[in-house]
Prior knowledge:
Chain A is 32% helix and 25% strand. Chain A is an alpha/beta fold. Chain B is of the alpha/beta class.
Amino acid sequence: MSTAPDVAVIGAGIVGACCAHSLTQAGLSVRILERNFPAAGTSRACDGLILCSDKTSPAELALGRASAALWANLAESLAFDFEYANTGVIVVYETPEGLAAGQKQAADLCAQGINVEVLDAASLTALEPNLAPDLAGGVYYLDEAQLDARRATLALLEGARAQGAVLEAGVQVTGLRRADNGRVVAAVTTEGEVSAGAFVLAAGVWSVAIAASVGLALPVKPRKGHILVTTRVPRLILHPLLEGSYAASVHAATTAAQVAFVAEMTAGGTLLLGSSREFAGFDRTVSPAVAQAIAARSIRYLPALANHSVIRAYAGLRPWSPDHLPLVGPAPGVPGLYLATGHEGAGIGLAPVTGEVLTQWIIDRTFARGEAISGLARTVMPDRFGDLSDRENRADLAAAVAGSLQAHPAPPHFLSF
Amino acid sequence: VPIADAISPLSVDVAVVGSGPAGLAAALAAAESGLTVSLIDERPAAGGQYLVGNDVGQSAAVAATERLGAYLLRQVVTAGIDWRLGSTVWDLDSRLTLRLFSHGQATALKTRAVVLACGAREQVIPFPGWTLPGVMTAGAAQLLAKRYGVLPGKRVVLAGSGPLLLATAARLAALGAHVAGIVEASHPRMWLPHARAAWGHGDRFSEAWEYLGTLRRGRVPYRFGQAVVAASGEEKLERVTIARLDAAGRPLAEGCEDLAVDALCVSFGLLPNTELAQLGGARLLFDPRRGGWVPDLDTSLQTTVPGLFVAGEAASIAGAAAAMSAGRLAGLAAARHLDSIPADAFEPEKARLEDRLRREARFGITLNTLFAPPPGLDTIITGDTFVCRCEEVTAGEVTAAIANCGDWLTLDSLKIWTRVGQGPCQGRTCAPILGRLISRETGRPIADAGTFAARPPVRPVPLHAIAAMERTDVGVRQ
Lengths: 417, 478
C-alpha cells in the first residue's frame, strides 16, 4: 500500500461517497474502504426522493434544504448521470381532516420559503389522472427532486476518484486501532491495517459494530424498509406521490411494522412502491406480510396498478437514531474518528450536507467558513447523546430511546403486524 | 392428464417444484413413503420440457425414455399426489414456505421439505442480430414443433454447440422444414480424448445415429468448427453469416459465408435454473461440468439448507435418465429427512441410485465438457450487440463499465452501473453472458463474477394477487 491518506472513509454507500467527494474537493487525499462494492448495502435498497416536505423540525428542515441545494449543484457538476430530476412531490390525503392537517403543515413550510400549492380533489386528479377518484386532495411541493440512489453513489465516487481518491472494494473493516494517546491511527481490515490521518465511519447500520471496537455505543439501530418494483408503467404517475401520513410514519418509532404509500417513477419506467418501517434486527429478507400491505396500500391510491406486476422486492436497513437526526462529526472521546451515520430514511437526501459538515470538521474545526455550516453542524453533533462510552446498560441512552418511542406513537390507522 | 386442483392443503410434507422426469420421480418416491406431496408446475400440463408432444422425428431411444416417463406420470396420477399445474412458484423462504401464483391468486404452501426439479434454461452467446424476429433458441423451436407441430420457418439453420442442435434439426426435418445446415462450434478432433467416457452409452449413440440418418436423407450439411457470427435482415431474419473458428474458438475474418434463411435456432447447451434454490438460501458453486452455477449438494442431493433438495437438470445437466434417478434419490432423501423411512431401508437404495446416477451423469458431464462454448467464441459479442434484452443494454456499455469498475467487479455492481438484469427476467438470460464478458475483458475466471442476488418474486406477480394474500399466506406470526 502507498503512503497513508489524509482520510480513510469506511463505507461506500451514499454517505461515504458524499464524504469522500467533499473531502477530495477540499484537497485532501482519501481512501475509501468498502467491504462489498459501492452501494451494496442500504443505498441500493431505497427510493431516491430528496424531501423537505417530510421534515417536521427546524433542524431537519435546515439540513434538508441545504442538502437539496447541494444535490442540484452535484447534478450539474458530476459527469456521471444519476437521473436527477426536479419532479416535485405530491402529498395525497384520503380524508378532509387529513387534508386540513396537510394544509396546515404546507402553510408552515410555505412561511419558511418552501414552494407549495394546495390541490383540491379536482386539481389533484388533473395533475395525476390515475389516482383514486375518492381522495380529498393533496399538496404539491414544487421544489422536491428525485434521483437514482445507486447511480448517485457511483457518480460521487467517480467524481472523487477523478480527483485522486482510491476506492478499495472487498476490504472489510473489522475494527479500529488506537495509539497510546487514544487517537485512532489505523483501521483493522481483512487485508491488513490501513493507516490514515483521520477516519470517517460511514458504514450505515454496520457502523455500530466498528464503533464498538473503540468502546463507543452508537444509539443507532437498523430500521427495515421494503420496496416493491413493478414492470414498466410509463406515465402511470407524473410526480412522485406520498400518502399524507408518510411524515408521521417517519417519526413514529414503534417496533411494529408500519406502511405508508410512496410511489416513485424511475427513469427506466418502473415504479418503486413503498414504504415500510420496522425494527427487525439485521434481517434483510423480504417479508410477505409487508409486501402485501404495500401492495394493498398502493392499489388503494393507484387502482390502475392492480393488474400490473411486481418484478422484484427488497428490503434495506436504514440507520435509525433516537431523535431522527444523523450523527455527523467528531466521535466523543475518540480523537481521529468522525461519525457519519444515523440518517435512517433520509440518507440519500442528507448525504451531501453530511459530506460538507464532515469535511468542515476535518479541515477547519473553527468553522471559519461561516455561521450557516456551523449551525447545521451543531444540530448533528454526536455528543448530543453524551459521551457514548460503552457502559453496560447505559441508562441515559436507554431513556433517550424510550422517550423517543413514547413521543411518537404510531398513528392508529397504520397497518401493524 | 387429469388436473385435480380441488384439494388445497395449506401445508404438505413435501413440495416438488417441476413435473419433468426428476420431479415426477421425486414426487412418487416421497408419496410412496407415506408423505403428503404437492407437485407444482408452471405449465398447464405435467411432464416438463421432456415429456411433451408427439413422436415425429424422435429416436427410438428417446421414445423409450419417454415411455418410462409416461409410465411415471401415470403412477404419479394414481398416487394421491396434490397436483398444482399452472402454478408459478415466486417465493421460497428459509422456513421452506413456498408462495405460488395460480389462477389469478397468490397463496402460500407450508412444507417440511422441498425438492426443486425446475429444470434448465438455454444458454445463448449473443451476436449482432440475435434479437431479430426469426431468431430463437433451439429449445423454443423444439417446443413449438413438439407441442403444436409448428415450424420456426421454411429454411432453417441451427447454430451453437451440443446435441440439442442435432435432435432439433432431425425433428424439424421430419416435420418438413428445409434445414439448410447445422453450424457446430466444436470439432470432432476435440472429441477423441473423451471417447472412453462414452463407453457403455450405446443407447445415446444409437439416438445420435438415427438423427444423423434423418439428416443424411434430407441432405443436411453438418458444419463443424464454425459459428454464426451475425444475423441480418430488414425487420426480420433474412440471412446469417457463418465463420470458421480457430483452435481457440475465435472466428476467422476470411472465408465467411452468407446463407439465406428465414429461421435461425441457437443453442449453446443448457444452464441449471438456480434462482429458487438461491432464494431459499442454498449455497451455489461454479462447476462447468455440471453446467455452470449449480447448488452445492451433499450425496443425498440436499443443499446447504436442511430439507431443501435439488434434482435433475436444475442440479446438473445430465439428461432425462439421470434426472429420473436423481429425482427418486431426492424424493427418498426428503422422506428420510422427515423420518418417514428408516435408515436401513434408505441407505441401500441410496447406494444403488448413487451408483446409477454416477454412471448416467458421466455421459452428461462429457457432453458438457465437449460442447462447452470455447472462450474465443465470446469475441462474436460485438459492442453494439444487446446483452440484456429486458433493459436493452449493449455489450459496449458493459465493457465500458467493466473497464471502470476495477477490482469491485461483480454482476451485482454491473447491475447498478448499467441496468443489466434489472428487468422482469431478473437476469436469467444475461447473467451467464455477463460472466463470460467479464472473463473475456479481465482474464479472470467466469466464477469470479458471481451471480445476481435472487429477489422475490422470481416471476412477475400482479399487485392485486399480492395485495389479496391472506394473513395465513403472508406468514404473520401470532
